[in-house]
Amino acid sequence: MSTLTELLRQATAHEVRAATSTPFAWRLARGELERTHYVRLLANLQALYAELEWALMWNRQHPAVGPLCLPELWRNELLQDDLRALLGQGWYSSVPRQDAVTHVERLGMLCDEAPGLLAAHAWVLYATDLPGGSQGGARIARALGLRGKEGTSFLRHATHLDGESYRAHLLDTLDQLRLDERSREALVEEARLAVRTVRSLFEALGRNLPVVREQRERVRAGGWWLRPLALARENS
Description:
The protein contains twelve helices and no strands. Helices cover 65% and strands 0% of the residues. It has a single domain (4-235), classed as Up-down Bundle (Heme Oxygenase, Chain A).
C-alpha cells in the first residue's frame, strides 16, 4: 500500500500542475510582480496561514493534529514581518485579503467540526511545491528594490532553523498516522480541495495578468510546472 504522502502527491498532481500554470504563479516564480500584486499575495497568504496555525494549536490535543503542530514550519509571523516591512506598522488595515476568504472559512469550519482533515491543509501549505514558498525571493527583491531579505522572508523561508528537516519530519509524521481507508480517502479529497482553493487564489490575484508567450509554450509542452522551484534555488 502507498504511504499517505505518496497517495496525496499522486491524487493532487493534476491540481498542483493547474495551480502552478497560472499567469500569477509564473510571474511570482520569475520575480516579475509589481509591488501592489506582491503585497496582495502576502496579505492573503497571511490570513490563510494565521487561520491554519491557530486551528492546529487549538486542536493540539487531537491525536491526528497534535503531531503536526510544528511551529518551526509556521509562516504567519514571517508574512507579518514582510507586510510590516513593506507597509509599516499599520499593515493589517492597509491591504485587502478577501481573495483567501473561502479557504479561511473552510479552515475555520474544520477547526470546529473535523479537525482531523487539517492534516491535508498542513501537507499542502507546508510540504508541497505550490507557488508562494521558497520561490523567487531574490528576484522579487531586485524587481522591487528591496534591501537584503526585507519584505521577502516568507519567499526565502528565512528562519534560523533547518526548514527542510522539519518538512521531512512532517511528511514522516503524516505517514505514521494510523488511519483507516475511509479516513485516508477523506484526507485525499480534502487535499484536492485545498489545492483547488490555492489555485483559485492565484487565479484571482492574476485576473488581469496576460499569459506570456514563454509560459504558454512550456505549459503546452507539459514541461514547466516544476520549473519555479528550480528558478528559486538558482536565485535564492
